[in-house]
Amino acid sequence: MGWIDSFSYWKMERYEKYLMTMQNLGECPDCKGKGFTIPYSVYAAAYECPSCNGSGLYSDWFEVNG
Ligand SMILES: [Zn+2]
Question: How buried is residue 57: exposed, middle or buried, by Cβ count under 10 Å (0-12/13-18/19+)?
Answer without folding.
Answer: middle
